[in-house]
Every structure is written in structure tokens, then in C-alpha cells.
Amino acid sequence: MRLWHWLERFNITPCGFSVTKIDGGEDKACFDKQFHASGHASREDITWLIDQIDPDYIVPIHTEARNWFARSFEKVILVDEEKPYEF
């Protein structure tokens, strides 16, 4: 566990993260959900942001929910890889 070894090396006591031994002596990372942040915006936050910006087009790129954008907003462009687009 690279992160755990770095924390130990610099004598950093983590908060919300620990390592436990599982069967066979293998290390397993354990994260406290109280301290977890996904780093991704919720659909409600995305909707609010799009309403605030009022873009001419919406081009969802880094998402697994492309069709949600198409169902939820107007002027959504679902791109295909390696195909050029002009706006």
C-alpha cells in the first residue's frame, strides 16, 4: 500500500484511513465514510451549475451518464471518439 507507506515514512497519522490485515496477511485499506469525498458533483449540483451558466451547448465528456445529460437538458451533443466537431 503505497499511500500507507508514505504516511508512515513521514510520520503522518491519517484521519479517516487505516490499514487492516485480511486472511493471508494481506493489507487492506479501510476508509471511514465520514471523511469520504468522491470528488464528483451530484446531479443536482450539475443541474444547478448548468442553469447558472446557461451554456449554448452541453458536451458531456468525462461521464458514465451521457444519456442522463441528453434526457435532462437541451442542446446536448454526445460526441463520438475521433470525430471532429465545430461549435
Secondary structure elements and pairings:
Elements: H1 2-9, E1 17-21, E2 27-31, H2 43-53, H3 66-72
Antiparallel strand pairs: 1-2
How would you sum up this structure, described in words?
- Strands 1-2 form a two-stranded antiparallel sheet.
- It is elongated, with a radius of gyration of 21 Å.
- The protein has three helices and two strands.
- The protein has helices at residues 2-9, 43-53, 66-72; strands spanning 17-21, 27-31.
- It has 87 residues and is an alpha+beta fold.
- The mean pLDDT is 87.
- 30% of the residues lie in helices and 11% in strands.
Keywords:
87 residues; alpha+beta; 2 strands; elongated
Please give the alpha-carbon distance between the first and last residues: 45 Å
Helix content: 25-40%
SSE string: HEEHH
Number of helical stretches of at least 4 residues: 3
Shape: elongated
Write down how many β-strands occur, each being a DSSP E stretch of 2 or more residues. 2
Task: Output the strand order for the largest sheet.
Answer: 1-2
| Poorly predicted regions | none
Radius of gyration: 21 Å
Mean pLDDT: 87
